[in-house]
Every structure is written in C-alpha cells, then in structure tokens.
Design goal:
alpha+beta; OB fold (Dihydrolipoamide Acetyltransferase, E2P); 5-stranded mixed barrel; two-stranded antiparallel ribbon; 32% helix
Length: 173
C-alpha cells in the first residue's frame, strides 16, 4: 500500500508542478461573439454574449487608454464607442485582471480593436518594464502623425496619471 501511495505521488507531482508553475499548455482562450452594450472608457466595456448568459465587463488587452477624467479620456471613450457600441464583436479571453474584468482581445469586422485604438491615438500600447508593448508600431505611427492623445505635449501615461491622482470619480448613471 505504501508503494502504491509513493508511486501515485511521484506520478502526480510533475503534473501539479507544471500546472502551478504555468508550464505545459497555456490557458485555453474563451472565444465568443457578443454585442457591445456599454463603453465605460477607452479600454473598458460591457458585452452581452450572443449565446445568452450574463453581461460581461471586459478590459481590452494590450492597451492603456487615458482615464476618463484625464485629458483625452472622453475622446478615447467616444472613439471606442463610435467603433463598437451596439456592434457585434468577437471576444477572446484568456486572463482576468486584478479588478475581476476579463482581459480580452476584441475583433470587429476583421480588425483588432486594440491596434485600431492605438493607431487612432486613442490609447497607448500597454507597457511593462522596458517592453514597449504589443502595439508599439501603431503607437509610433500615431505619435509621428500627432493623432489623438499624441497631438499635444507633454503626454502623460495613464498609469502615471493614476499614481498622481488616484482613480477618477464614478460618472453619474
């Protein structure tokens, strides 16, 4: 009996270690079509899956839009709303953020919505450490063309704005 328990432990431990360390297969993406029902700001929105179920709050993966109370925040929200509000998008979720939102890649009419937002100058490519993020080329073109948030100097990254001012007050409903 003791040998069976030891053998079982030895066969299970590598699997547990792989799942805890993130090794092995990446987490599966959840992909579904949904209608955008509300745009809160330039990188946060609500969708209703077409297959039914609850409304879901999403944060667009790979971008950082200005805070709604930051210069450019309302314009960023309006750009996203003009593109996707009441439209059907394909949602692809693999992660969740610290606020319980699904981090999602959105596709609308064949376009990556995040890349489009950065290319319009309505958001930054999300940075971490020295990495310029997934949409660095779109951001460089928007900066060069002085589009949107890049039209005026100086430009303050949303994370720096949040550090200095804290969160924006909730808008009235």
């Amino acid at each position: 009996m003791l040998r069976l328990a030891a053998a079982l432990c030895l066969s299970v431990l590598p699997c547990l270690a792989a799942s805890v360390s993130g090794a092995g297969h990446p987490p599966e993406r959840e992909v579904y079509p949904a209608r955008v029902t509300r745009v809160f700001d330039g990188d946060t929105l609500w969708v209703k899956p077409l297959a039914g179920g609850r409304y879901r709050k999403l944060r667009i993966e790979g971008i950082d839009a200005p805070e709604i109370c930051q210069r450019g925040g309302a314009a960023s929200r309006d750009a996203l709303a003009a593109r996707v509000l009441n439209q059907v998008v394909e949602v692809s979720v693999r992660h969740h953020d610290d606020y319980g939102r699904d981090l999602a890649q959105l596709t609308h009419q064949g376009d990556d919505v995040a890349a489009w937002m950065v290319g319009q100058g309505s958001a930054w490519s999300y940075r971490w450490g020295r990495n310029p993020g997934p949409f660095k080329d779109e951001e460089a073109r928007a900066r060069q063309a002085r589009k949107g948030v890049f039209s005026e100097s100086p430009v303050e990254l949303p994370r720096d704005f949040r550090k200095r001012h804290g969160p924006c007050p909730m808008p009235p409903r």
